[in-house]
Design goal:
single chain; about 325 residues; Spore Coat Polysaccharide Biosynthesis Protein SpsA, Chain A; two-stranded antiparallel ribbon; about 20% strand; globular
Length: about 325
């Protein structure tokens, strides 16, 4: 299917950073879609030859070259002003959608005018599900659903389709998140605007999960822990946001005492005091900007925060 067609309803935004090993396969799969589309690639200052691959690719994607690595969230935010289509797709550079991926996602949004986003099925090369959408846990974590649940709280940002104007009306993409939770935060704000999110399990995408971000690394845990708190401060009921921030600080204070007492503590980075102190410092530094963002979210909302929270956590 040719790209850049005036009949295209979707701009597929691919954010890449040092994607030489996998971005070609991604663009090949996008070019093979059964629906007309436009491709916009955000190159986050790659220095590994990615720029040359983009320039040579037969799909001739429009490329937005950044002077620094803005992360996935920053790249999506940079792309949004240049999107002129009805829909915008978010796609990881290490993901390869099936040829009917976009067709199924567009059809899902056409069939449900109350839905602002459609979440695809991302899976491993062996076909094992990675995400069908995102649930919101009782402590405010975003959790990938892999069991085919009929309803989801949010979309998985690695391969999703959104209504462009709904995204803009909800405040766009939180660029400061850099990486992770930008999808759950956006889902929160769409729901506050009165929209829903639909899973489309037949829209399949093979994903080399974590090719750029190394799940389990220090950076991975820093972004996850920090951005969960950012999201809750911006979007959640005040009591929920305050409770989870206090819990995070309290556990940070208790962990050294547990170690001194010889009690077992998980070895992962998110249980290391230094990383947790860094997260708390980053939240404190941004507390006033986050408060302003919270007011902006409230100004745009049509549904109370408490109602959205109860819909995700009926028992909470």
């Amino acid at each position: 299917m040719t790209t850049g067609n005036d009949t295209a309803r979707t701009t597929v935004v691919v954010v890449t950073w040092r994607g030489r090993e996998h971005v070609t396969a991604c663009l090949d799969a996008v070019a093979a879609q059964t629906r007309a589309h436009r491709i916009l690639v955000v190159d986050n200052a790659s220095d590994d030859g990615t720029a040359a691959l983009l320039a040579a690719h037969p799909a001739r994607p429009r490329t937005l070259r950044q002077e620094a690595n803005l992360g996935y969230a920053g790249g999506l935010a940079a792309a949004l002003p240049g999107v002129g289509t009805e829909f915008v797709a978010w796609l990881n550079d290490d993901a390869a959608p099936a040829p009917n991926w976009l067709e199924l996602l567009e059809d899902a949004l056409d069939e449900d005018p109350a839905a602002a986003a459609a979440s695809a099925r991302t899976e491993s090369a062996g076909g094992e599900p990675i995400s069908l959408g995102v649930a919101l846990t009782a402590d405010g974590h975003g959790a990938d659903l892999t069991n085919g649940a009929p309803a989801v709280f949010g979309f998985c940002g690695g391969a999703a389709l959104l209504r462009t104007e709904a995204l803009r009306d909800a405040g766009g993409v939180p660029a400061e998140f850099f990486c992770y939770y930008e999808d759950t935060d956006t889902s929160w704000r769409l729901r506050l605007g009165g929209w829903s999110v639909v899973p489309v399990p037949d829209a399949r995408v093979t994903h080399r999960h974590g090719a750029s971000t190394r799940p389990g690394s220090r950076s991975f845990h820093r972004w996850n822990e920090r951005n969960r708190l950012y999201m809750l401060i911006r979007c959640a009921p005040a009591g929920v946001a305050a409770r989870e921030c206090v819990r995070f600080a309290a556990l940070t204070a208790v962990l050294p005492l547990r170690r001194l007492a010889g009690r077992a503590v998980p070895a992962t980075w998110n249980f290391r005091t230094g990383l947790r102190l860094q997260v708390l410092a980053e939240v404190l530094v941004r507390l006033f900007p986050l408060a302003r963002e919270r007011r902006d979210v409230a100004r745009r909302a049509a549904v109370p925060r408490s109602a959205v929270w109860r819909s995700a956590n009926p028992a909470g």
